[in-house]
């Protein structure tokens, strides 16, 4: 998989924020004309308070079956502190290391975090989507910016997430009786397609299956369990 290293990761907070502002200008919120969906990659990173390492997992699933086909992992020292709005500088390097180990190139990437719905318009899904130059979606459990009303109670009910008078995401009910998720396009993605793909990947749980599987496997990796890379 080709990954474009567009900047240094060895930055302070001010430098990281400036990189976000510059990269945000390069986002394209439009799905490529030749886009087709046969596979998805869920990406997640876990860590622990007393552990200076981070545990990254990229899991590839077939679509529409949502069967796990491949898993890549990476365990790395945390080289950037936890700073709200700068998640990609902490989790990006280990995720990219894991993604480089994939044999397949998925059609779309789903990240446990934000895309456009970010103070500087560049959450982890947008940041890594740009470096991968692949369609990417951010799916978060809570918003980082924006205002919204509550969506209806049924799966598929949506309302826009609005920040500074512009839509930056979609508040999506994925399961009756549970809190919604916050979907935002990362790169090479639009609002409607991001929402449609996220909902199509939700089966019996609140979170879409690629992210749910990645989250589960990253916690197993952190606990020291052996993770098979081929299914």
Task: Kindly describe this structure.
By secondary structure, this protein is α+β, with helices and mostly antiparallel strands. It has helices at residues 13-24, 87-99, 124-132, 191-200, 209-222; strands at 39-46, 53-62, 68-77, 108-112, 136-140, 158-163, 166-172, 181-187. It has a single domain (13-28, 35-222), classed as archaeoglobus fulgidus dsm 4304 fold (2-Layer Sandwich). Helices cover 25% and strands 25% of the residues. The protein is globular, with a radius of gyration of 16 Å. The mean pLDDT is 95.
Give me some keywords for this one:
8 strands; archaeoglobus fulgidus dsm 4304 fold; alpha+beta; eight-stranded mixed sheet
Short structural description:
This protein has 231 residues and is of the alpha+beta class.
Query: Which ranges are low-confidence, i.e. pLDDT below 50, for 5 or more consecutive residues?
Result: none
Distance between the termini: 20 Å
Side by side, the strands of the main sheet go 3-2-1-4-5-8-7-6
Number of helices: 5
How many distinct beta strands? Answer: 8
Proportion of strand residues: 25-35%
Number of domains: 1
């Amino acid at each position: 998989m080709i990954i474009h290293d567009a900047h240094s990761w060895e930055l302070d907070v001010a430098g990281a924020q400036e990189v976000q502002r510059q990269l945000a200008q390069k986002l394209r919120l439009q799905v490529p004309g030749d886009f087709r969906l046969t596979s998805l990659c869920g990406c997640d990173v876990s860590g622990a308070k007393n552990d200076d390492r981070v545990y990254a997992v990229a899991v590839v699933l077939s679509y529409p079956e949502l069967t796990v086909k491949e898993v890549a992992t990476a365990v790395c020292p945390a080289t950037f502190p936890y700073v709200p709005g700068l998640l990609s500088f902490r989790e990006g390097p280990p995720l990219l290391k894991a993604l480089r180990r994939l044999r397949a190139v998925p059609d779309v990437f789903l990240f446990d975090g934000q895309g456009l719905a970010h103070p500087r318009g560049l959450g982890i899904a947008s940041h890594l989507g740009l470096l991968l130059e692949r369609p990417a979606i951010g799916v978060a459990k809570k918003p980082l910016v924006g205002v919204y009303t509550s969506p209806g109670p049924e799966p598929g009910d949506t309302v826009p997430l609005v920040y500074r008078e512009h839509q930056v995401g979609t508040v999506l009910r994925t399961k009756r009786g549970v809190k919604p998720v916050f979907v935002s396009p990362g790169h090479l993605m639009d609002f409607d397609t991001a929402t449609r793909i996220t909902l199509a990947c939700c089966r019996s749980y609140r979170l879409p299956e690629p992210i749910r599987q990645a989250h589960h496997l990253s916690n197993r990796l952190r606990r020291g369990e052996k993770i098979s890379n081929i299914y």
